[in-house]
Amino acid sequence: MTVLSISGLKVDIHSNTVLHDIDLTLEPGRILGVVGESGSGKSMTALSVMQLLPHGSRWSGSIKLAGTELGTLDEPALCKVRGRDVGMIFQEPMTALNPVRTIGDQVAETVRIHTGASRREAFSIAREMLDRVGLPEDRFPLDRFPHDLSGGQRQRVVIAQAIALRPKLLIADEPTTALDVTTQAQILDLLRELVREEDMGLMLITHDLAVVAGLADSIAIMKDGAVVEAGPTREIFRAMRHPYTRALFSASAHVPDRGRKPESGKAPVLAVENVVRDYQQPRRNLFVKPPPFRAVDDVSFEISHGENVGLVGESGCGKSTLARSILALDGLQGGDIRLNGHVFSSAGEGPHPELRARMQVVFQDPYGSFNPRHRVRRLVTEPFHLVRDPPRGAELESRIDRALTEVGLASSDADKYIHEFSGGQRQRIAIARALIIEPALIVLDEAVSALDVSIRAQILDLLAGLSDRLDLSYLFISHDLSVVRAITDRVLVMKDGKIVEQGETETVFRNPQHPYTKKLVAATPSLEAALAAPAH
Amino acid sequence: MTAYLLRRLLSLSLSLVAASLVIFLVMEVVPGDPASFMMGINADPQAVAALRTQLGLDQPLPLRYLGWISGLLQGDFGISYTYRVPVSELIAERVVISLPLTLYALALSTLIAFPAGILAASRRNSASDLSVMGATQLGVAIPNFWFAMILVLVFAVNLRWFSAGGFPGWEAGFWPAMKALTLPAIALALPQASILARVMRSSLIDTLNEDFMRTARAKGLSRGQALRRHALRNALIPVLTIIGLQFSFLLAGGIIIENVFYLPGLGRLAFQAITQRDLIVVRSVVILLVFAVIVVTFLVDLAYAAADPRLRRRRT
Fold this sequence. Notes:
Helix content of chain B: over 70%
Radius of gyration of chain B: 24 Å
Number of strands of chain A: 20
Structural class of chain B: mainly alpha
CATH topology of the largest domain in chain A: Rossmann fold
Number of strands of chain B: 0
Oligomer: heterodimer
Mean pLDDT of chain B: 85
Number of domains of chain A: 2
Number of domains of chain B: 2
Largest sheet of chain B: none
Shape of chain B: globular
Largest sheet of chain A: 6 strands, mixed
Distance between the termini of chain A: 22 Å
Strand content of chain B: under 5%
Shape of chain A: globular
CATH topology of the largest domain in chain B: MetI-like fold
Strand content of chain A: 15-25%
Low-confidence stretches of chain B: none
C-alpha cells in the first residue's frame, strides 16, 4: 500500500499561499528526495504531513498516510498518528532533544504515550532502538543526557525516537545539514539501511543535490511552493527537462572562472609560524588545575599574493580557533603571525592596529553579523576606525560607492537598512565592508555555507573576480569540500589542532595522502559519482 | 555534582567572610559612640570610659572583629545597647514572625504565579493572556502599603474576618497565628506574584519556541503534554532565580507591611535599632540577613542542579 500520497495540497498562512497544488507519492521501502532552495516550501510540505503547520495556516487538498485521510482526523487522533505512523527527524540535532531529560527517557516516551507500555518495557524498547541506531549500551547507557553526546550521536537519538514504533513513514528534514561530512555519510547510511530493513517510506528533505542523488529512488524538485519536476532520480538528472532543475544542478557543481594564477616567489602576505593556542579547561576538581586544551598545535603555513587557500576539517578540529588567532581576536601561546613580513601578533603580544586594517573577515551568518539599527553606509565604513586618518567627505563617498559597486550592489543601497536585503545581498555587504579598507587578505569563515546553491554560485564568482582584479588573498575556511575545491589554489587539512596535509587543491583531492584526508574525500557526497554509479 | 556543590559552597563562604568584614568596618566609621549614647548627654566621662572598656570598645580593631566573629559562631551576638538584653534573644523573637511571614508570602506568590504564568504562556495573545498581563501590570504598580490598607478596610474593618493587626504569638496556637499573618502575607505576595508570573510567562514562551518542543509534538504529545513534560522544567531556571531574590527581599524588606499590621518583625527591629543608634543590633540583623541570603542562594543552586543536569556535569 502507498505510504504517503499527497494530492492537490495547498497551504495558506495568513492568506499568503505558501504551497500550491503539491502532488507526491511514496511507496514503502522507498526514498523520496524533496529538493529545493530556502523558501521553496519543502519544510512546509513536511509539516503538512505532520499536521504541525504554524499558527494561522489553512490547508486544503488531500494527504493520505497509509490510506488514512489526515483531513478527517481531529487533533487527539492526529496525536495518535504522530510518532506511531509517521516519525520526523529535524535539521538541528543540538537543540532537537530536551536538555534536562535522559536519552533513554526521551526515546521511551514515544513508546509509552502510544502503547501504554510499562516503564520497564518502554525502556527495553528504547535500549533496543538505541542499539539499532548505533549507540551501544556500554558507551551510551539510557541515563545519559544529550549534552554528553556529539551532534551525530544526538541525531541518532532523534532517529531512535522517531523509529521506536516502526512508523510507516519517516520524514527527515535536512537531517545531515548541521553535521560533518563523515558523520553525514554515517547517518545517511543508517537511514538507507532502516528504510530497506523496516520497509519504511522515507521522505528526505534537503537542499543538497549530491545527498539525494546518492540516496533517493525518486525526486521532487520544489520552487516557490510548487513541485516543478518529479520522477525517478536517474531520469530526472539524465533528462533535466525543467530549466530550474538544470539551473540547480549547474549551481551545485559551479566552479568559478579564475583567470590568473597567483604569483609565487614574492614575500608571502600571511605567514603563520608555529602557532599554538591553548584553552583553559573548566575545573572538575577543586584542587587540581586541569591541563590546558591545545586547540591549535604548532601550525605553520603561508599565503602568497593573490592566492586562495582553503582550510578544511571537521567541527572541533580547531579551524575556527586558528581563524580567531590569525585575526588576533585571541592571544597566542606560541609562535607568531606575520602580515606582509611584519609581525602582526605573537605569543604574549597583541596585534598592531595599523596592520589589522590589512586583514578583514567575512563570517558565516549574514543575518547576525550586522547591527540592524545602522544604515549600510555606516556598516561598510566600520573598518575605517582602524586607520589614523580615515577618508572624509567626497573621498569617503567615493570609497563607499566603489566598495558597493565592486560587490554588485548599487550606490543607492548605502542609505538602506540591513533588513531590506536578502541573505545573499547581505553577504555581499559583508564583503564590501571587508573590501573598503583595501586589505591584503580576507578570512572567509564559512562565508557561503548558509547560502542557497544558486546564491552561493554567484558569491563564489564574485569572490573569484575580486581576487583576480584586486590581487586579494583569501583564507577560505569551510567544512564543505566541494566549495573549497571550486575556489581555492591550495588546501590545508586540519585535524585535532594540527595541519595533517597540505598541497595544491586538485592534487590533494584527487590523490589524498593522509588517511584522514582520504576519509574526508570519500565521505563527501558527489553528484557525478552518484549518477555514474549503476542503478540499485 | 559534589564538585559543583563544593565549589558553590566555597565561594559562598568567601562572600560571607567578605560581607562580615564590610559590615564590621562600615559600623566602625558610622558616627556616634555607642557608650556615650547609652550613658546619655550628661554622663561622666569616666563612666563612659568604663563602659567602653566593658563593651570592649577600646580594643584594637582586628581583635574586636575576631571577638565579634567568634561570638557569632557561638550564637552570641552581644548585648543590645538600648534594651540591655542579649541581641540573640531580640532577634529570635522577631525571626519567628518574619520567617514564617516570608515563607507564607512566598508560597502564596508561587501558587498564584505558576498557574497564571503557565496559562498566559500556553494561550499567548488570547484573552486569558491579556488579562494575566494586565493584572500583573497592576500588581506591580500598586504600592503594597496601600493594598495592605485596602485589605484591612475590607477584610478586617467591614467583613471582620481578620484582625486589623498585631500578632497573638505562636503560643496562641498555629491557626490563630497563621490567621494573623494572612493579610500581611497577601499584601507582600501581590507584587511578588505579579513579577514571578511575568517571569514564568516569558521564560515558558522562550522554551515553547525551542526545537525540542517541536520534536515532542512530532512524537505525538499533545500541546498540553508537551508543555508539562518538556517545557516546564526547562523554564524553571529564571523563575528559581527570582524566587531566591524575593526571599531575601521579603525577609527584611517587609518593614512597611510590618508597620501597617503592627507586626514585631525583623524589619521593624532593624529600623528601631537604626533610629536608636543601637549599632550592635543593626550589625547583627544585617549579618543575619546576609547569612540568610547566602543560604538561600545555596538552596537555589541546589535547585538549579536538580532542574538542569548540565550543571551537574560528570563526576570525576
